[in-house]
Amino acid sequence: MNTLSDRYHRLRWWGLAAISLGVALIIMDSTIVSVAIPSIIEDLSLTTTQVQWVQEVYTLVFAALLMVWGVTSDRLGRRRLLIIGLILFVGSSVLCAFAPTGGWLIAARALQGVGGSMILPTTLALLNATFRGPERAIAFAVWGSTIGGMAAVGPVLGGWLTSSFSWEWAFWINLPFGLLVIAALLFAVQESRQADARRFTDWVGALLSVLGFGSLVFGLIEGRAYGWWTATDDAPVTFGSISIIPVLFVAAAVLLTLLVVWENRRVKAGKTVLLDVTLFRIKSFANGNVTALTVSLGEFGIILSLPLWFQYVRDMDALHAGLSLLPLAIGSFLASGSVHSMSKHLSPIQMVRLGLTMEILGLMALAVLIRPESSGWITGIPLFVYGMGVGFATAQLTQVILSDVPVEESGQASSTQSTSRQVGSALGIAILGTALFTTLRAGTESRLSEEIAANPQVGELVKGVSDSAGALIAELSANPATAAIAQAAREGLTQGVSVAAFVGVSVLVVGFLTTIPLARQQKAAAAEPAANAETTE
């Protein structure tokens, strides 16, 4: 008679599908809303500030809480916390769909961030506990490709739902899929937790983590709006002429330093901790987290800029803009399917490097070739290559980071590397977003310098294009008197996408260089058993 564990072992690949679909929900949600925003603005009469917060509060809460839920899952149970996160995520999605005001929607999006922050680290921890050897490489490849692919599928689905039904369906879609994932988890995934779990008492560490990462991510997200150093004219909080952003960065540095010192003291005292700093003695874990941060910084900025370019420069609707990103998703999923066969010839770190190389080549081609009149082939082929790179690099990097981590600490380790990725993503959006919008305004102004000198009102229109992230282009284009301004803005936005892509390339090159210590360590680890065998003989 088969035991319960035997049954779960036989169903582990179905469990992988359930876990991957759970990840797909939260990744999709971070991109699906972007194409629904124009309809939400019209229906709920959102202010500019509310528009920003509908998109950004999710990321802020998500990143701030990741560390807390990783260690909680090790003790409470990884499957249990994943299901709790899904229930909260699905429930808050329903609240979003019923939102009558902008404030309601923002609050519900914050709750979604809480649920999402429970889901991401627990999915990784479950994979780490369920799969071993070559199977683990396949599982992480599927997980990573899901992240890369769903980031591109989200706008497609969001565009279709918004165009064919209403913006509420961008949230309703989470209900049936969320319930399906919960049922599949209960049926096909075995519970796992830390064997010697003790009652968690590190509430000071949890508070330092939330405040530290919250301050850091808020600063990265809002830096352009509040001013990186000097406060902008419409900044709601200032210190004289100084922006709140540098103050938040200093606060984040102090809080996170205190977190490390506090956690180190608790580890030495044998007490429960939020962050086991001894994990960073594992070289693959420490170096891999540095690589994950830099790679995420370069990877996700392009997802911010291209949907804007497709809609405002190429005049596509939300659905067709989303479809134009599909080559990225296809490339990512194809990479996932080939990982198993390639793992026989390439080590995980070699696949990470292959992926990074493809990402660099894809972004470089896009940066060089993109023009306001570019066809789908000009963007599609580089995006396909880039997507293949995401598929190879993201999941295999996760495997490298967690390869030497004890299973009983996998939840904490997973949340740590997830936090590294989220901080990197926020930093990438801040840096590449700043490059995009700064170039949009400066490039448009330089093309209209004579007109601005003759008529200052033209300068105000250019500022309006920049403040609207390009949304004003269509209105300007429809009026013959301002059509020339619209064309200059199209060229400026295209130049901004190119500059952002070049910045992304530079960051990915740095990410590639950070893999050098990982490769050296891998070689040393491979040579050690051989040396021990020779000594024995």
Task: Summarize the structure in words.
There is one protein chain. With 537 residues, the protein is mainly alpha-helical. Helix content is 81%, strand content 1%. It is built from 22 helices and 2 strands. It has helices spanning 4-10, 12-44, 48-76, 78-97, 102-130, 133-164, 169-172, 174-188, 203-226, 244-268, 283-299, 301-312, 318-323, 326-342, 348-369, 376-402, 410-447, 449-454, 456-467, 473-478, 483-513, 515-536; strands at 238-239, 242-243. Strands 1-2 form a two-stranded antiparallel sheet. A hairpin with a 2-residue loop joins strand 1 and strand 2 (242-243). It is globular and about 80 Å long. The model has no long low-confidence stretch (mean pLDDT 81).
Task: State the share of residues found in helices, binned by percent.
Answer: over 70%
- Helix- and strand-based class? mainly alpha
Radius of gyration: 23 Å
Q: Report low-confidence residues grouped into runs of 5 or more.
A: none
Biggest β-sheet: strands ordered side by side in the sheet: 1-2
Largest sheet: 2 strands, antiparallel
* Helix segment tally: 22
| Quaternary class | single chain
Terminal Cα separation, in Å?
44 Å
Strand content: under 5%
Q: What's the overall average pLDDT, rounded?
A: 81
Q: How many distinct beta strands?
A: 2
**Shape annotation:** globular
Order of secondary-structure elements: HHHHHHHHHEEHHHHHHHHHHHHH
